Amino acid sequence: MSLHTLDAAAGDVAAPAAGAPASGAPTRRRHRPRRWVPDVAAVATGLGLGASVAWPISQTTGAALRSPGGVATVLGDATAMAGTYLLLIMVLLAARLPALEAALGQDRLIRWHRRTSSAPLLLLGAHGVLTTLGYAQAGRLGFWNEAGSLITTMGWIFASVVAYAMIVGIAGISIRAVRRRVDYDTWWVIHLYTYLALAFSVPHQIFDGTTLVGHPLAKGAWIVLWLSTAGVVVAFRIGMPVVRTLRHQLHVVDIRPEGADVWSLVVRGRHLERLAVAGGQYFAWRFLTTGLWWHAHPFSLSAMPSPPYLRVTIKVTGDATAQISRLRPGTRIAIEGPYGAFTDHARTRAKVALVGAGVGITPLRALLEDLPPDVDVVVVQRASDERELIHHSEIEAMVAARRGRMVTLAGSRRRHRLDDPAHLRRAVPDLSGRDLFVCGPDDFSAGVVAAATALGVPRRAIHCESFAS
Ligand SMILES: Cc1cc2nc3c(=O)[nH]c(=O)nc-3n(C[C@H](O)[C@H](O)[C@H](O)COP(=O)(O)OP(=O)(O)OC[C@H]3O[C@@H](n4cnc5c(N)ncnc54)[C@H](O)[C@@H]3O)c2cc1C
After folding, report:
1. For 344-465, CATH number?
2. What's the CA gap between 442 and 321, in Å, rounded?
3. 300 in ligand 1 pocket by Cβ < 6 Å?
């Protein structure tokens, strides 16, 4: 259970055991997430959406509605406001807002971000059609003539049409079936163009939007909404990671093999006792070296911080992880995080089962270390063969020290079917009375969750971490 590493900076100095701070300084505890934050955010979002729709409707008169194109125009305004507002909500869902992230976890926020995505696209598409129709009816022009005239005579409308086309394209490559064919880095770079598209769309809203032009208060509120969203993105996606990176000055000190294509990366930094992190959380790691600096990769801590050391355990699955396994001691690292709600704070009962497969055992290893001593633990470690039982002896020793139970299942899928309720019950007979934490390949986790549900574990007691993005 030790990080026993060579500290490149200080010569052959053995690092301390994982979990026992080297400096004697206690690591900062992560605060319990504030469960009311998502509820308050949901109510505020609903009120904001209501106000965005109600404002243009409240500004219209009966006479305007009865005039040619009146209904289409007011509906066009309402869909514009609602669609744009929901686009901002999508940006906020992906903005790594710490209070929301801690309560819900990044994976859930990103799931909502994806699920929301069709609504603003449909609403903004409807805005384009309805407003053009309304103007065409009012001016007694054909629809396409009106569309051509709006685009060619009003520059900001042209910019917003380009922005809309970009957003539709970005949404298109994010559809699961398309996304699977595009490599992650290409998808990520294209996704960044969303910010450019949003910037293109702003002048049309401010200078052309009939619901805002001539209404300084509404226009002011709308501008504040945009500026606050931009401020949140800059603060939490750029500012906070830069501050953490400068404060902790992380660099690689050792890389050691743990199994077939699996490596532990030991990292040294300053003031790690001030880093509030819970077992089971992850950081986005950006290795500041040629070829790797421009994209961050999420890796869970595989041990609680042991100041001045952190450890992650990485399976080589592609180009980046292969390069990481060859990094040199001294390589500097920028971090974002910690992120994730796969922690003890999510636990609802005094008994837990930690079920991990392959490299999915790593966050469970750190979570095990972080669980209060009175929690009754069963750990199930699954691997296709014994060489893939990562950190097995560490986990075994920790389970024994807390008088828990360890179940090791190495071998073929057919022999150890944890997606079969009968097999799962054999591994953890009292599973229905435990919280279940599961991490592994997605099909493995889905199978275990389905079997656990069949055995009567309630949904709120099931916690799943996915390594797929
Ligand atoms: C919350 C979380 C925690 C993780 N913890 C660990 C861990 O402790 N140990 C471990 O070995 N792996 C972990 N992973 C998986 C790890 O991030 C990917 O395997 C790694 O980024 C793959 O990079 P690659 O370029 O070598 O592989 P590729 O073959 O390019 O990618 C393999 C898959 O990894 C995902 N991926 C690639 N790049 C990124 C990225 N920058 N951000 C997010 N996902 C990406 C994509 O789904 C891709 O299909 C974690 C993933 C997540 C989401």
Report:
1. 3.40.50.80
2. 19
3. yes
For the cut 50, the answer to whether the pLDDT of residue 2 exceeds it is no
pLDDT of residue 25: 54
**pLDDT the model gives residue 414:** 80
Ligand 1 atom at shortest distance from the alpha carbon of 107: 1
Tell me the pLDDT tens digit for each residue of 68-78. 999 999 999 99
Strand, helix or coil for residue 320: helix
Task: State if residue 180 touches ligand 1 by the CB under 6 angstroms criterion.
Answer: no
Angle at which helices 70-93 and 216-233 cross, to 10°: 30
Where are the chain's structural domains?
36-213, 244-339, 344-465
Which residue's CA is the nearest one to ligand 1's atom 37?
184
Ligand 1 geometric centre to CA of 321 (Å): 8
Q: Determine which residue's CA is closest to atom 33 belonging to ligand 1.
A: 468
Q: What mean pLDDT, rounded, does the chain reach?
A: 91
Tell me: pLDDT of 3 over 70: no
Tell me the per-residue pLDDT of 331-350, one tens digit each, with 9 for 90 and over: 999 999 999 999 999 999 99
Q: Which residues of 371-382 are buried (b: 16+ CB within 10 A; e: fewer)?
A: beeebbbbbbbb
Residue 375: half-sphere exposure toward Cβ, Cα within 13 Å: 24
Ligand 1 centre to CA of 337 (Å) is 15
Mutation test residue for ligand 1: of 108, 282, 321, the one with most atoms within 8 Å of CB: 321
Q: Is the pLDDT of residue 293 over 80?
A: yes
CA contacts within 13 A on the Cβ side of 52 = 24
Pocket lining: 469 vs ligand 1, CB cutoff 6 Å:
yes
Q: Which pLDDT value is given to residue 260?
A: 84
Output the residue whose Cα is nearest ligand 1's atom 17.
Answer: 298
The end-to-end CA distance of the chain, in Å, is 30
Residue 10 CB-density burial (10 A; 0-12 exposed, 13-18 middle, 19+ buried): exposed
The span from the CA of 338 to the CA of 285, in Å, is: 10
Q: DSSP letters of 174-203?
A: HSHHHHTTS-HHHHHHHHHHHHHHHHHHHH
Query: pLDDT per residue over 353-374, tens digit each?
Result: 999 999 999 999 999 999 999 9
Residue nearest to atom 10 of ligand 1 (CA): 314
Give, for ligand 1, the residue of 297, 390, 463 to mutate: max count of ligand atoms closer than 8 Å to Cβ.
297
Please give the model's pTM, rounded to 2 decimal places. Answer: 0.88
- Superfamily of chain region 244-339: Translation factors (2.40.30.10)
Q: What is the mean pLDDT of residues 137-150?
A: 93
Is the CB of residue 291 below 6 angstroms from any atom belonging to ligand 1? Answer: no
pLDDT for residue 9: 35
The encoded tokens of residue 39 equal: 């509820």
